[in-house]
Amino acid sequence: MTLSWRRWTLLGLALLWLTLHLGCAAPAAPRLEGDQRVWVTESDEPEARRRARIRLELAAGYFEQGQTTVALDEVKQAIQTDPSFAAAYNLRGLIFMQLEEPRLAEDSFQQALRLAPRDGDTWHNLGWFYCQSDRYADAWQAFARALQAPGYRSAARTWMVQGICQARADQRADAEQSLLRAFELDSGNPITIYNLALLLHKRGESERARFYLRRLNNSEFANAESLWLGVKIENRLQNREAAQQLATQLLRRFPDSREANAYERGAFNE
């Protein structure tokens, strides 16, 4: 399995909650009615919400396949079916981000938060939106709200995205701390590992970068970008044999990649 880190870091990070959460049945949860605790299960879901959720699952699938306008149409129908469904506005915000409609994207996220003000997933996505818009102060606040959300289960993802955003804002010390926190929470995430190694390499800490990147390049998630970074790290450390081994993998597995082209041009400092 190979992934493009550019795709995941620049386009796909905010979408992870879709595949992880959207299609899952809601777990049983208690609520108070008078003095009694009543357990709410899937069968208690209102009919309008059930139909809207099905539309939203379809929309998420279309969006993941790159069929953006079809996904938007499904989201519109989900909202028409249940205008109080916060997750539909959240996905609509992601779609408008993809369509490069920032005003509509932000309006959608804000509407989702009006309906569900403590939803960590929406705060996370809004933070990524602000990062993409270079509104860094707003992004830090949104990520903090996500991490503070009750019951939020995706803290590793938010620390990771915050770290990527901080690196983009040239706040490298803060970025390192965020990515290290993400690594502590989910040491197997290839996006975290790659971005942490990249950051350390850029800071001149290539020994530490190699420590993390080797974990990735020895796994099924190694790709052209991670192998090329490995080549540059080993080259800087003057470990020619290791650099050549990684380069051989790069040229054999990804001969048409721009990383392979960069290697053949000797562009180690680009």
From TrEMBL:
Domain of life where this protein originates: Bacteria
Assigned keywords, A-Z: TPR repeat
Pfam families, sorted: TPR_1
This protein's record includes keyword Membrane: no
TPR repeat coordinates: 52-85, 86-119
PANTHER family: CELL DIVISION CYCLE 16,23,27, CELL DIVISION CYCLE PROTEIN 27 HOMOLOG
NCBIfam families, per the entry: type_IV_pilW
Protein name: Type IV pilus assembly protein PilF
Organism of derivation: Tepidicella xavieri
